[in-house]
Specification:
Elements lengths: L1 H5 L3 H5 L2 E6 L6 H14 L2 E6 L3 E5 L2 E13 L7 E14 L2 E11 L1
Parallel strand pairs: 1-6
Antiparallel strand pairs: 2-4, 3-4, 4-5, 5-6
Organism: Pseudoxanthomonas broegbernensis
Protein name: DUF4440 domain-containing protein
């Protein structure tokens, strides 16, 4: 999903998101898809740096906590925008593919 976003592939990013996704403020999958599309359209260049992940497996589900730094801009030398977050995410195995079904994030 990181490579898909950095490659500006909104559809490929969403392939990893479960149909029943829920996020901050009641965000559903459709709202997340619009946010991802907006970021791809607004930024010629997108960068993500992920911090170490704390993974806790519970059968066919996993909770993953990590930090993320995002950058975006016109694609020139320096990014015009940046943000940092702490993320807690829920994943489940759906037919051999891990899909994101829950995410909560807060600014660092």
């Amino acid at each position: 999903m990181q490579a898909a976003l950095e490659g500006r592939g909104a559809a490929a990013f969403m392939d990893g998101v479960a149909e029943d996704f829920s996020g901050n403020g009641g965000m559903d999958r459709a709202a997340l898809q619009q946010v991802v599309r907006m970021q791809v359209l607004a930024n010629a260049s997108i960068g993500l740096t992920l911090g170490p992940a704390d993974v806790q497996l519970q059968g066919d589900r996993a909770t993953v906590r990590f930090s993320a730094m995002s950058t975006g801009g016109s694609g020139r030398f320096l990014p015009e925008r940046a943000g940092a977050w702490e993320i807690t995410s829920g994943w489940r195995d759906e037919g051999g593919q891990w899909r994101l079904y829950y995410a909560q994030w807060k600014p660092r």
